[in-house]
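Private note to self, pasted from the team thread so I don't lose it. Backbone tokens:
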């Protein structure tokens, strides 16, 4: 089915779900644990949701793991998140055949040391031929993505650009636009996430904290998505 099907008001197709994984810190606080523990349990939830996205047959899934603003957090917390990321990347490398997704990192990799950046680039290269996409947004900000894309196009000598050209210069060039963006943790904002790509996305907010967000919660979000009428500006 194509996106056109949606414009007729028929059941919307679901190709790409994106997640703002919020609430790890509060989840830990509620249990008297340091915030870092919330992130560790957040990774557990992340793994279960990635697996579920695989079972659901989605073309793409995107996870907001670390924003350009998250560097402002205490060093101990930033280090803990990076360590969790390194463990996950190491595992992906070791068990490459068990992961069905093409892995893409959204964000500015230049902030990372050679080892971490090398690993990210290797994973992207090794999975490049796969069709379904797992986007991990790391050191990502929507505004910075747009500025980076503009500068790429200017450097390529462009004086005028089309929407398609700008789209192709974004970190998400390989993915369709998100159909559904889910934010856990109760806040009602998109926090600099996929600003361009979210133009026609359906938004779903839940009070569930990310470590408690499991396959059943994703199924509920998707069930609600299927009740929405997507008009893409039409009637
Ligand atoms: C938001 O919760 C969460 C983050 C800023 C980090 C999310 C990171 C992970 C789940 C780990 C990702 C790792 C991999 C391997 C993908 P918060 O800390 O802002 O929670 P709060 O709003 O309750 O304080």
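Design output:
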């Amino acid at each position: 089915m194509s996106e056109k099907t949606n414009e007729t008001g028929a059941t919307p197709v679901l190709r790409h779900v994106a997640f703002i994984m919020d609430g790890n810190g509060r989840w830990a606080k509620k249990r008297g644990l340091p915030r870092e523990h919330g992130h560790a349990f957040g990774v557990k939830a992340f793994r279960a949701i990635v697996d579920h996205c695989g079972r659901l047959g989605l073309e793409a899934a995107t996870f907001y793991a670390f924003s350009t603003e998250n560097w402002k957090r205490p060093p101990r917390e930033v280090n803990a998140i990076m360590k969790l990321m390194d463990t996950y990347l190491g595992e992906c490398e070791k068990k490459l055949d068990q992961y069905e997704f093409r892995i893409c990192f959204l964000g500015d990799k230049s902030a990372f040391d050679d080892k971490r950046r090398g690993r990210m680039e290797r994973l992207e290269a090794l999975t490049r031929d796969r069709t379904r996409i797992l986007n991990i947004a790391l050191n990502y900000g929507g505004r910075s993505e747009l500025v980076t894309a503009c500068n790429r196009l200017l450097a390529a000598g462009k004086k005028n650009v089309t929407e398609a050209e700008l789209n192709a210069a974004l970190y998400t060039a390989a993915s369709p636009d998100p159909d559904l963006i889910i934010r856990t943790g109760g806040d009602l904002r998109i926090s600099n996430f996929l600003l361009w790509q979210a133009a026609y996305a359906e938004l779903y907010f839940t009070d569930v904290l990310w470590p408690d967000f499991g396959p059943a919660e994703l199924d509920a979000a998707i069930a609600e998505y299927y009740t929405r009428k997507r008009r893409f500006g039409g009637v």
